Each structure stands twice: as structure tokens, then as C-alpha cells.
Amino acid sequence: MAFTGQLAVVTGGGSGMGQAWARQLATNGASVALLDVNAEGMATTAAGYDAIYPFTVDITDAVAVKAAISDIETQLGAIDRVINAAAIMPFGRLADEDPSVTNAVMSVNYGGLVNVTTATLPTMLQRGYGDFISFSSMTGIIPGLLMGAYASSKAAVQHYSEILYHENRDSGVRFCCVCPPAVATPLWRQAEATVVPKLPSKGETLTPDEVIAEVERCLEAGKPFAYPGKQTKLGVMMRRFFPGLVWKASHDAEGF
Predict the structure, then answer these.
(1) How does DSSP assign 24-82, residue by residue?
(2) Is 110 assigned a catalytic role?
(3) Which CATH number belongs to the domain containing residue 212 in this structure?
(4) In a domain, 1, yes or no
(5) Domain tally, the chain
(6) Complete edge-to-edge strand list for the sheet that includes strand 173-178
(7) Catalytic residue selected from 53, 110, 129, 150
(8) 82 part of a folded domain
(9) In a domain? residue 220
(10) Does a structural domain hold residue 130?
């Protein structure tokens, strides 16, 4: 693993990517502080690990996030890596979706990243060391039918992360925004509980370990973006050079 620090903070640590990454880091000797509203899930993540520490916090609450980060630094020490894995993923037609749901997706997926960034990054920049990882998605690059709220939030994450990298590229802190396709986690099952867009469901599905490995390569190479999966880079090129074909494929798949 590329990570050589002592303490990582993982949002969304109660399930999915956050849980998998927290356990991998702890297995390799790091201490891990989890941030999540899911206390039961965090307890499951921490079971059997002495160096995983749950902190119940709503990342959409900037004041609560700042207080939790302060507690982590006081109790556990300086933060060497931040992994922003928290997200929600309901799907559906935008005009039919309850606006409270659409706004909640942006608040968690994008607003949570903003709150964690401002609570953790300044100290890392002062030290001139650390890893800062954010999660966008292929849907943040290739928008599709029935994925409007989620895709919009992940596009916001992507732009925010790119600017964050360029504003701090000579700081000593390593940045990586990962843009995976579907990953076999409870987050994807959350989407399946609403409606599953046909086009992305036909693509490849990665394991959390595959995504983690690609992020580690991204950090080592000093690149701002990671595109895990065989189909991902092709998707990026298709969106850039043939956007009409991408939309045609989406309309053909959904039938409207």
C-alpha cells in the first residue's frame, strides 16, 4: 500500500467502500477514525479491530464535523489521510423526485465533502503531508437518464476536487478523486431499491479492493483522477468526443 501514515479518517465508514477501506488500513497497521450516522454499521466495521474508532456524526452538519475532527486530533493525533466515501444514491426521474431527496443527495455527496475538506485539509496543508481522497463517479462524467440527482452531485464533487488539487498541487499533500463505475457495495443496492437505469447496469461492476488499488496507484503517480475498471477510460473518451452517441445509448436502453 502507498499509505505510510499513522491515522486515517474515513467518512461513510459504516458500510461499503468506507468499511472495506477502513478494515484494509487497520489490517496494515494504521489507526482509523470513522465518521458516519450509522453507529451500528460502524460497530460492525470496528469489530475485531483495536485501531478502528467510530465517531457518530452527520457530515452535512459543518459544525458537528469540525467538532468531531477536533476530537479525533485530540484523542488520536494528526490526520495523515482523509477518505471521503460517504454517499447516498436514490435514482429516479428528476421531475418526479421529491425535492427534499434531490437536495439531500447534494447535501451528503457534495456538501459533506466540503465540510470534511474545510475541517481537515488546512492542518494537512500546514504540515505539508497527507493524502486527500474524494469519491466522484462515472456518472459525474457521463450523466444518464434516471440518475440526475446522483450524477449532479458527483459532477460537483469532480469539479470541486479538481480545483482543490490545482489550488494545492505544490503543498506536499497528495490528492486523488476517484471516478468508479458501479461497485458491489450496499450503495448500489440502495439504488436498486428505487430504480436501476439499464445502461449502467449493463456495464462492469468492480469490487471495493479494485477501486482501492487504483486510488493507491493514482496517489503514487501524482495524478488528480483515478478511473478504475476496463470500461472507464473508454467512457471518458466517449463522453468527451461523442456525447450524442452516449445519450442515444441511454435513450435506447431506457426506451424513452
Answers:
(1) HHHHTT-EEEEEES-HHHHHHHHTT-TTEEEEE--TT-HHHHHHHHHHHHHHH----EE
(2) no
(3) 3.40.50.720
(4) no
(5) 1
(6) 52-56, 31-36, 7-11, 81-84, 130-135, 173-178, 225-226
(7) 150
(8) yes
(9) yes
(10) yes
Cα–Cα distance measured from residue 238 to residue 245, given in angstroms and rounded to the nearest whole number? 8
Cα separation, 101 vs 191, whole angstroms: 13
Per-residue pLDDT of the chain (256 residues; tens, 9 = 90+): 467 789 999 999 999 999 999 999 999 999 999 999 999 999 999 999 999 999 999 999 999 999 999 999 999 999 999 999 999 999 999 999 999 999 999 999 999 999 999 999 999 999 999 999 999 999 999 988 999 999 999 999 999 999 999 999 999 999 999 999 888 777 766 666 677 777 665 667 899 999 999 999 999 999 999 999 888 888 889 999 999 999 999 999 899 9
DSSP string, 194-254: T---HHHHTS-EE-HHHHHHHHHHHHHHT-SEE--STTHHHHHHHHHH-HHHHHHHHHHHH
Note the pTM of the prediction, 2 decimals: 0.93
Please give the residue range of the domain that contains residue 212: 7-254
Question: Which amino acid belongs to residue 168?
Answer: N
